[in-house]
Amino acid sequence: MSTTTPRPGTSARTVLAPVLLGVVALALWQLLIVVFEVKPFIVPGPLAIGEQFGSSFGTVLQGAVVTGGNALVGLVIGGVLGILFAVIAALIRVIDELSAAVIAALAVVPIVALAPVLYTMFGAGAETARQLVAAIAVFIPVYINTLRGLRQVRPVHRDLMHVYAASAWQLTRTVTVPGALPFIFTGLRIASSLAVISALIAEYFGGPVGGLGKSITSAASSSNYPLAWAYVLGAILVGLLFYCVTLGIEKFATRHYKPST
Amino acid sequence: MSDAPAASAAVEVVGVDKIFVGKKKATVTALENIDLTVAPGEFVSLIGPSGCGKSTLLRLIADLDAPTTGAITVFGKTARQARIDQEYGIAFQQAGLLPWRTVAGNIELPLELHGVAGPARKARSAELLALVGLSDFAESYPDQLSGGMQQRVAIARSLAESPRLLLMDEPFGALDEMTRERMQTELVRITAETGAAVVFVTHSIPEAVYLSNRVVVMSPRPGRIRDILTVSLGSAAERTDQLRENEAFFENVSRVRELLHGEAPVGIRGVETR
Questions:
Q1: Do residues B20 and B65 touch, judged by C-beta distance below 8 A?
Q2: Predicted ipTM?
Q3: Cβ partners under 8 Å of residue B112, min gap 6
Q4: pLDDT tens sequence across A128-185
Q5: How confident is the model over B88-112, as a mean pLDDT?
Q6: Phi, psi of B69 (to 5 degrees)
Q7: Percent of chain B predicted with pLDDT > 70
Q8: Which of A154, A174, A260 sits opposite B109 (nearest CB)?
Q9: Contact criterion met (CB < 8 Å) for B150 and A165
Q10: Which of A42, A174, A188, B196 is 20 to 30 Å from A239 by CA-CA measure?
């Protein structure tokens, strides 16, 4: 099992193995539902969920667009602010020292708990509160990872830029920020899942109807369990999409970042 | 040599000490009473065991560190002013290429930082890539090159602004022996073509002898110049690979070795002068 060098067929195996495991798990799940006659309000079978997902695909997709849209706005705002603040903190030490405690405090706040407060601030009819919740959730991992990445400048590069009499801004633009890209993307990848989860959970606390979170609660409260689960499946797919897209961008952007001499 | 006016020397080091202050105010004397003059176009190697301060001396000349006492001038300017005016190019043991830039992008980096226009940068990098024999790799990324090729890119980058002085800190230290000899031959050719003075830090005695007009032998703790040996192996054109088999080459190698080890054992000297 422990192969040290990738061989042809290994990539096929890494894809095939989890897919196979998933299929087996689903089959087992369906089998248990049938054998023990489990009631749908406890948990519906995968076939029932799949059927419901197919028949109400349009509404699930609409919900996914709303929730995914909020998550995306949050990811962009939180990501841009996180990177920007990290660059400033890396350039100006005082700001870093001043904000360290605030960031640490912000990191332990359950961000979604802010949702009810934000709804009253921005009005329950707007998506703003949800986007803000997602943005705050995104900000922290992006800020922390970016700042760590910005501190990874190799001594040889620092010497070189000193020799070139480069300004602080030139150093930041040509060496520090590009060098921090792998860290920035790791932060964004972690944050992408957080953005979707935060945007979704924020819907539980109020605001306009239409998103996946609201749809899950309303389907569950009207005892339409397969539909509720179909929405959950939609939420999983949105999260997966965000994760895969950020992972893909990360792989592409850092494709030449192998340790070189 | 000390009669020469300061402005004409590529590097002039006068009475330099370097003392590092560590934790709990423990001091380490890295360099003591260093005097050294490098003429324009001259190739000078600094050789010595680890801890003899040869890299520190190079860093002082490059203004990457400041001497504790004494003065360093580069083409008659202070080391700091010479750095700001880009009077020298530098190459380190690590190539230190930026992995997110292409080979051409790396070579153009100093030009870009100093405001050279795009077309002029392109022309210069093409010229330098031809000089180091990597014209086919302009659009490659560093991770696609071997260690020796990366080091050639680093040398091309150090030459980007046509400096009259090259500072090199064990640039071939991480390369295998065969690549190393090929790079040495290329460096002799390149310095002959550019006419630049070179201060070259190395661990390798044959390397120092093969490349240099003069070899500065240093001793450790505290770092001092033990002796300076003038090597006369002819002009760059005469220094081909055959030189490595030459009697005069071996003679110089054993002279440097004797200087490095202080008194050489008599037996070895007898063998090598045969």
A1: no
A2: 0.83
A3: A174, B121
A4: 888 999 999 999 999 999 999 998 888 999 999 999 998 888 999 999 999 999 999 9
A5: 92
A6: -135, 165
A7: 91
A8: A174
A9: no
A10: A42
Pick the residue of A152, A158, A160, A171 with the most B CBs within 10 A to test the interface with B by mutation.
A160
What is the pLDDT, as a whole number, of residue B3? 44
> Is the pLDDT assigned to residue A116 strictly greater than 90?
no
Predicted confidence band of residue A24 (pLDDT cuts 50, 70, 90): very high
User: For A143, what's the count of Cα atoms within 13 Å in the CB-facing half-sphere?
Assistant: 23
- The string of DSSP letters for B1-41 reads -TTS-GGG-SEEEEEEEEEEE-GGG-EEEEEEEEEEEE-TT
User: If you search the block for the tokens 């002082």, which residue do you land on?
Assistant: B60
Q: What is the pLDDT of residues B51-64, one digit of tens each?
A: 888 899 999 999 99
What pLDDT score does A91 carry? Answer: 86
CB contact (8 A) between residue B92 and residue A175: no
Summarize pLDDT for A27-39 with one digit per residue, the tens. Answer: 999 899 888 888 8
pTM for the predicted model, two decimal places: 0.78
Pairing of strands B197-202, B43-47: parallel
What is the spatial distance between Cα A118 and Cα A132, in angstroms, rounded to a whole number? 8
- Phi/psi-derived region of residue B128, left when phi > 0, alpha when psi is between -120 and 50, beta in every other case: alpha
Written as six digits, the tokens of B237 are: 């054109």
Token pair recorded at residue A86 = 């990290």
pLDDT band at B237 (very low <50, low <70, confident <90, very high): low
Question: Can you give chain A as a three-state secondary structure string?
Answer: CCCCCCCCCHHHHHHHHHHHHHHHHHHHHHHHHHHHCCCCCCCCCHHHHHHHHHHCHHHHHHHHHHHHHHHHHHHHHHHHHHHHHHHHHHHCHHHHHHHHHHHHHHHHCCHHHHHHHHHHHHCCCCCHHHHHHHHHHHHHHHHHHHHHHHCCCCHHHHHHHHHCCCCHHHHHHHHHHHHHHHHHHHHHHHHHHHHHHHHHHHHHHCCCCCCHHHHHHHHHHCCCHHHHHHHHHHHHHHHHHHHHHHHHHHHHHCCCCCCCC
Our CA-based measurement puts residue A157 at a distance from the nearest CA of chain B, in whole angstroms, of 6
- All structural domains of chain A: 48-253 (1.10.3720.10)
Residue A183: HSE in the Cβ half-sphere, 13 Å Cα cutoff: 22
Q: What is the sign, positive or negative, of the torsion defined by CA atoms of B189, B194, B196, B202?
A: negative
CB A115 within 8 A of CB A206: yes
Domains and CATH numbers, chain B: 6-87+165-272 (3.40.50.300), 96-162 (no CATH)
Closest residue on chain A to B86 (Cα):
A164
The shortest C-alpha distance from A251 to chain B (Å) reads 13
Tell me which residues of chain B, numbers 233 to 262, contact chain A at a CB-CB cutoff of 8 Å.
Answer: none
